[in-house]
Amino acid sequence: MLRFLFIIIRRDMLLAARRRGDWLTSQFFFVMVVSMFPLGIGPEPEVLRMVGPGVVWVAALLASLLSLPRLFAEDYRDGSLEQMLLSPEPTVLVTLGKALAHWCIYGIPLLLITPLLGIQFALSAEAIWVLVLSLMIGTPVLSLLGSVGAALTLGLRGGGVLLTLLILPLYVPALIFGAGAVDGALSGVGYEAHLSLLGAFLVLTLMVAPWVAASALRVSIE
Amino acid sequence: MSIAWYKYAAPVTFYHLAGRLAPWFAWGAALLTVIGLYIGFFVAPTDFQQGEAYRVIFIHVPAAWMSMFIYLVMAFWSAIGLAWNTRLSFMMARALAPTGALFAFLSLWTGAFWGKPMWGAWWVWDARLTSALILFFLYVGIMALWAAIDDRRRGDKAGALLTLVGAINIPIIYFSVKWWNTLHQGASISLTKAPTMATVMLVGMLVMAFAAWFYTIAVALVRVRSIILERERQTEWVKEILER
After folding, report:
1. Residue B125 in contact with residue B181, Cβ under 8 Å?
2. Model-level pTM?
3. How far, in Å, CA of A166 to CA of A149, rounded?
4. B52 has pLDDT over 80
5. Which of A25, A160, B83, B211 stands the most exposed, by the fewest C-beta atoms within 10 Å?
6. Contacts of A65 (CB under 8 A, 6+ apart)
7. Do B144 and A212 touch (CB under 8 A)?
């Protein structure tokens, strides 16, 4: 069972490695969106420091939404998704594996770029560390919840925009706890509480989302 | 007295039952609205703190209650539908959603009218306002999903799954927004310590709440009737009705 999960993850990562353009697009999207904000609101370091965490987090939400429509679409088109569902292994492993692979491909590079963006926004070293930490706990939530949306909108016209409508409201707790942790670090209130809550949200999502995504996938493929 | 649940789970029988019930609820809603608004505008005294502007609560509070309650009912029908694959439950969920979105929008809109004279702002990022806004977004998302899926069975189930995920998420959203709000704003505005309300006001509000209930039931029944007709159009009994 675990082997099947690893195979799914490995396969998706291999596909991503062979087609770099796909996932680099969403990383550059992330960097560009974040870089547009200082141009829009002015270069004062105090202002940037105040909005920085929120901007980075919102850009992370958008970047994940940008990449999610492709989560199942390619495999659906060439028929391999159907083969995976026909296999004797539970469908939950397919959705869980794909969400985890999505996090490895889109989430981890995001974490690596974030310190640079933090410097752009004049954040202190501690705040940048907390920002990366909050994204480390928060981005798997985005991938997992997003997999539900991707499964629901599989093969629909206008799927990408629709996915945004469905999933963005569900992202709200992750955004609040994630950006709140950095705010807490900046204002000296402390960030542990926010990160714990974000972690709790991650655990809950991990328990529910793959199953919902699996039944959504079955509904969509039927 | 036992009710034949299975009998009324069949669209044929429910269609006729809904047709009989809907006018009663519609007239009830009209009557209750007239009574409630009369109490609200003529009987209830002027609030000594908030003046006349508080009277918007006679619409605002029932609308806000209804918007939350309808979501719960939708989640209930979605769960039933997914568990037992009953066609009628999905139709009920679909029939309820537009009314829920309407009430969510009404509560936001009337809330803005209330907020302007009370707080001096059309909108504040209060926890309740923000979660009401997100509830409205959820309704919109669910309806958009239904609209995008042509296949009826797939649409039903996909919408039901999304409704249930939203139902799990709503309490988390509410509390996260609440904590976020206290962190950012401090103790600015609190809606929770409501001033003790005169009995007349409370009665007016409750009458209006019942009016909203009756309206919702009536509208949902009418809507579910047309959904049944649309979906069962290939059956004999619908053809008979349509030929008449």
Report:
1. yes
2. 0.88
3. 7
4. no
5. B83
6. A146, A160, A163, A164, A167, A168
7. no
